[in-house]
């Protein structure tokens, strides 16, 4: 199915562990995004990649790193997980400079204990 | 920066009722998006509507850019319409600024 695929769907980490969330899109979109959503809240932008080869910080980048591996893939890494990073993480993609076609993945529910 | 406000924050309706959700934004924009997050957490793109009116089945949206608001109409509500409805507009870096959402509960 066309769209945005995120893996894993669920993950439990111990404090201090590291992990990488994977995201891939097959819509040939230029721009990709990582958001986090805390319970009862809206989405907050962590990092984004306007085009292949570029990445920029969003609203809440601390504790995260990203890699735009190619046009299709955009990964999010937690180097040393903290309980404050317990959240649901969403990847999204869109055409550059447009909201049209903005598409989300199904999310990764991450718990850090 | 641009501020986005949504109202009402919560809405509880009986199945079959109609509803209007509002999104106000503080500065002129040339794009606006409505999203629905269902009770399972999935985010669905509803409308890309920088201006004018669009309809998709029982849902329609109108954006009046000159007056800095957008409305989402849901007619003949069904329980599957429950969830949170977000509007979002781009800032000068073309990153989305999100409203806090309207939580809609449709009772059978």
SSE layout and pairings?
The complex is a heterodimer of chains A (113) and B (108).
Chain A: E1 4-7, E2 10-13, E3 19-25, E4 31-37, E5 43-49, E6 56-57, E7 64-68, E8 74-78, E9 87-94, E10 103-104, E11 108-112
Parallel strand pairs in A: 2-11
Antiparallel strand pairs in A: 1-3, 3-8, 4-5, 4-9, 5-6, 7-8, 9-10, 9-11
Chain B: E1 4-7, E2 10-14, E3 19-25, E4 33-37, E5 43-48, E6 52-56, E7 59-64, E8 69-74, E9 83-90, E10 96-98, E11 102-107
Parallel strand pairs in B: 2-11
Antiparallel strand pairs in B: 1-3, 3-8, 4-5, 4-9, 6-7, 7-8, 9-10, 9-11
Categorize the overall geometry of chain A: globular
Note the main sheet of chain B: 6 strands, mixed
Biggest interface and residues each = A-B, 22 and 21 residues
- Element string of chain A (H = helix, E = strand): EEEEEEEEEEE
Structural class determined from secondary elements of chain A: mainly beta
Classify the oligomer: heterodimer
What is the total tally of β strands of chain A?
A: 11
Task: Give the DSSP E fraction of chain A (strand runs of 2 or more residues).
Answer: over 45%
Low-pLDDT runs of 5+ residues of chain B are none
Low-confidence stretches of chain A: none
Sum up the overall morphology of chain B in one term: globular
Ends distance of chain A: 34 Å
Q: Can you give the helix content of chain A as a percent range?
A: under 10%
Assess the beta-strand content of chain B as a share of residues. Answer: over 45%
**What's the SSE pattern of chain B?**
EEEEEEEEEEE
Mean pLDDT of chain A: 93
Instruction: Specify the structural class of chain B.
Output: mainly beta
């Amino acid at each position: 199915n066309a769209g945005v695929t995120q893996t894993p769907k669920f993950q439990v980490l111990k404090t201090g562990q590291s992990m990488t969330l994977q995201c891939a899109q097959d819509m040939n979109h230029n721009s990709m995004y990582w958001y986090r959503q805390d319970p009862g809240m809206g989405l907050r932008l962590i990092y984004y990649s306007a085009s292949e080869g570029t990445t920029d910080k969003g609203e809440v980048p601390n504790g995260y790193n990203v890699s735009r591996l190619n046009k299709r893939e955009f990964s999010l890494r937690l180097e040393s997980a903290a309980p404050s990073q317990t959240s649901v993480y969403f990847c999204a993609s869109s055409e550059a400079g447009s909201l049209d076609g903005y598409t989300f993945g199904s999310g990764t529910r991450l718990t850090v204990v | 920066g641009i501020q986005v406000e949504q109202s009402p924050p919560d809405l509880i309706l009986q199945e079959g009722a109609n509803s209007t959700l509002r999104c106000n934004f503080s500065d002129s924009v040339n794009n606006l998006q409505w999203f629905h997050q269902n009770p399972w957490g999935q985010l669905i793109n509803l409308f890309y509507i920088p201006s004018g009116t669009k309809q998709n089945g029982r849902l329609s949206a109108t954006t009046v850019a000159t007056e800095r608001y957008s409305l989402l109409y849901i007619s003949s509500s069904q329980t599957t319409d429950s969830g949170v409805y977000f509007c979002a507009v781009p800032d000068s870096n073309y990153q989305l600024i999100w409203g806090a959402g309207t939580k809609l509960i449709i009772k059978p």
